[in-house]
Amino acid sequence: MKARELLVACFLFFGTMLLWPLLTIANRPVLVWGVPALVLYLFAVWAAMVVVLIAAAARHRALEDDE
């Protein structure tokens, strides 16, 4: 997958993960290890976004170095 296609797919996927219907699923009065479920969900989505974008950047850099 090309870098631009991957970034567009990441934008759409993570944007979808932050839409209202999915946020309401996590917005429950439940504590997970003392942390509200919504805060944990937002942190997990943010962390996944960072990891995926770092991996995409590393892959793109490795492809540039090979050329």
Q: Would you kindly provide a brief summary of this structure?
A:
This protein is mainly alpha-helical and 67 residues long.
Structure description:
By secondary structure, the protein is mainly alpha-helical. It has one domain (3-66). 78% of the residues lie in helices and 6% in strands. The chain contains three helices and two strands, in the order ααββα. It has a two-stranded antiparallel sheet. The chain is elongated. The relative contact order is 0.13.
Main features:
67 residues; mainly alpha
Largest sheet, described in full?
2 strands, antiparallel
| Residue runs with pLDDT of under 50 for 5 or more positions | none
Radius of gyration, in Å, reads 16 Å
Mean pLDDT: 86
How many individual β-strands?
A: 2
State the separation between the terminal residues, measured CA to CA.
Answer: 17 Å
Structural class: mainly alpha
Strand order of the largest sheet: 1-2
The 3D shape can be described as: elongated
Counting structural domains, the number is 1
Helix content: over 70%
- Estimated share of beta-strand residues: 5-15%
Give the helices and strands as they follow along the chain: HHEEH
What is the count of helical runs?
A: 3
Spell out the blueprint of helices and strands.
Blueprint: H1 3-17, H2 20-26, E1 31-32, E2 35-36, H3 37-66
Antiparallel strand pairs: 1-2
Helix pairs in contact: 1-3, 2-3
